[in-house]
Write a structure and sequence with these properties.
The protein is of the alpha/beta class and about 300 residues long. The protein folds into two domains: about 130 residues, ATPase, nucleotide binding domain (Nucleotidyltransferase, domain 5, 2-Layer Sandwich), CATH 3.30.420.40; about 160 residues, ATPase, nucleotide binding domain (Nucleotidyltransferase, domain 5, 2-Layer Sandwich), CATH 3.30.420. The protein has twelve helices and nine strands. Strand 6 and strand 7 form a beta hairpin. It holds the Pfam family BcrAD_BadFG.
């Protein structure tokens, strides 16, 4: 992409940092995406240095993708939405980071998801990815549910689904419950043959590790595996309950976003499926919209 005719003062970078990946986009004054980049996990709850490294790497990759070789990060205004910074201590830690940008406007992944999904208008979002949580912004009031983190929260998320699947497989391998398709798929994914091997592989692993196992659960459910179906239904029931609480705030729109949104939607209660609206833009665009809002204050 050519850089001629681009006003550097009109460039913004939007960053969406989650438990599995960090995505950045470079946009112009018209919010047109010029380039994008994806790096590793961006949730500081699972490592401050990892998160800051991912933010910088994704931003540089976005510049490279846009062909903006003559633009430095120090010339860009950044909107940065991260999972984990709903915790005050992590928000303060990220705010104190000596970031490489001209300005950095930090907020949560929920705020940017909502801004992007509804183009800065009122609405509600449920994130179902590595983690899970719900958020609404109605009549200038923010309302949040979930987002408590793995393993003590985030029910219905990829990490939770994978974690519960491992528990079920361990019981099956101990012959306490029947071995099913799910058992075989998880064993194959982890390359293990017995419980001791499995425990060695899964011990002390982060949310991203367990989220990768969620695919085995959905694959098993597609083959009518009763245990896999029960896990997904339990998670989907929780997401449906979150949706009802959000809808009680009377948002004009409700969107489901995140890496599991497409596969989880059919498992939600029918009344909730009928209330869902497609997100208008992804969270990284919401980060740009947030930064632009903050710049004019």
């Amino acid at each position: 992409m050519f850089t001629s005719g681009i006003n550097k003062n009109e460039l913004f970078i939007g960053i969406d940092g989650g438990g599995t990946k960090c995505k950045a986009v470079i946009v112009n004054a018209k919010n047109e995406v010029l380039g994008s980049g994806i790096a590793g996990p961006g949730n500081p709850l699972h490592g401050f240095e990892q998160a800051t490294t991912s933010i910088e790497q994704s931003a540089r990759l976005a510049l490279q993708d846009a062909g903006l070789t003559d633009v430095a990060l120090s010339e860009l205004i950044a909107g940065v939405g991260l999972a984990g910074v709903n915790l005050p201590s992590l928000f303060v830690q990220m705010q104190q980071w000596q970031h490489p940008f001209k300005n950095m406007h930090l907020t949560t992944d929920l705020v940017i998801a909502c801004l992007g999904a509804h183009h800065s208008e009122e609405g509600a979002v449920i994130i179902t990815g590595t983690g899970s949580c719900g958020f609404s912004f109605v009549k200038n009031k923010s309302f949040m549910l979930g987002g408590h983190g793995f393993p003590h929260g985030d029910k219905g998320s990829g990490a939770w689904i994978g974690f519960v699947a491992c528990q079920q497989v361990l019981m099956a391998l101990d012959t306490l419950t029947p071995q099913t398709t799910l058992t075989n798929l998880v064993q194959s994914h982890l390359k293990v043959n017995n419980t001791m091997q499995m425990v060695e592989v899964i011990a002390n692993k982060p949310a991203t590790f367990y989220a990768q196992i969620a695919g085995c659960v959905f694959s098993a459910a597609a083959k009518n595996d009763a245990i896999a179906i029960a896990i997904i239904k339990d998670g989907a029931s929780y997401i449906s309950d979150i949706a009802r609480k959000l809808l009680a705030q009377t948002p004009p729109r409700l969107a489901l976003i995140g890496g599991l949104s497409e596969v989880m939607t059919p498992w939600l209660d029918a009344d909730i499926q009928n209330k869902l609206s497609a997100p208008l833009s992804p969270p990284e665009i919401g980060s740009v919209l947030y930064a632009k809002q903050q710049q004019v204050k």
